[in-house]
Amino acid sequence: xxxxxxxxxxxxxxxxxxxxxxxxxxxxxxxxxxxxxxxxxxxxxxxxxxxxxxxxxxxxxxxxxxxxxxxxxxxxxxxxxxxxxxxxxxxxxxxxxxxxxxxxxxxxxxxxxxxxxxxxxxxxxxxxxxxxxxxxxxxxxxxxxxxxxxxxxxxxxxxxxxxxxxxxxxxxxxxxxxxxxxxxxxxxxxxxxxxxxxxxxxxxxxxxxxxxxxxxxxxxxxxxxxxxxxxxxxxxxxxxxxxxx
Length: 245
What we know:
The protein is an alpha/beta fold. The chain has helices at residues 3-10, 32-45, 52-55, 60-70, 73-90, 100-109, 122-131, 157-166, 180-189, 202-207, 218-244; strands spanning 14-17, 24-25, 95-96, 114-117, 140-142, 173-177, 192-196, 213-215. 41% of the residues are buried. The protein has two domains: 3-26 and 95-244, HAD superfamily/HAD-like (Rossmann fold, 3-Layer(aba) Sandwich); 32-92. The mean pLDDT is 95. Helix 4 packs antiparallel against helix 5, helix 5 packs parallel to helix 7 and helix 6 (100-109) runs parallel beside helix 11. The strands form two sheets. The protein has a six-stranded parallel beta sheet, sandwiched between helices. A two-stranded antiparallel ribbon has the order 2-3. 52% of the residues lie in helices and 11% in strands. The protein is elongated. Strand 4, helix 7 and strand 5 (140-142) form a beta-alpha-beta unit.
């Protein structure tokens, strides 16, 4: 456990966890570019003009953002429904992130409640958590606002919504995310942040982003939480022994 990570965890009372990345690779078995192409197909079937740069967009979230920004509410709702259905299929073959499960379980053991805050749909997140026996370890799920992509991270609203669920102050929460939008959203919400650099190319960007801590593996966070749980258990046992003396 690095000293700075342990110190950071000791200063917070809850963990906010991004989903795609820290918990699993949502589109491991149903690639994101394929989903994005299918969403483009939905738009074309509605006779909606698709700009050349959007036609090549590999990220389905960016396709949704684009349509949301046009102000076409009908098209945004149709695309949202299609995307939600695709995400529900995707989580069936999602690949668990190494030590992602251990982070969730050890956070609970360390008495740090966990809320998932994701730009993916809450329905897909809940399906994954139930299938992997993690639902009981999570206090809540804040997913993408329906047909309103402007409210996705880095918008701080979903992060603050998670803070309210926990009954904590923003400064007493830490968000773990693998994208700059996570870090930007955390900073806008006044929440601490741990940047998960799951690719080497992300390290430099995260270090200059102002994140409170940068980790290269979820194992680092899991180990820190296990150590935190161990120390808290020792303190509890000492208090019990002193009170019964």
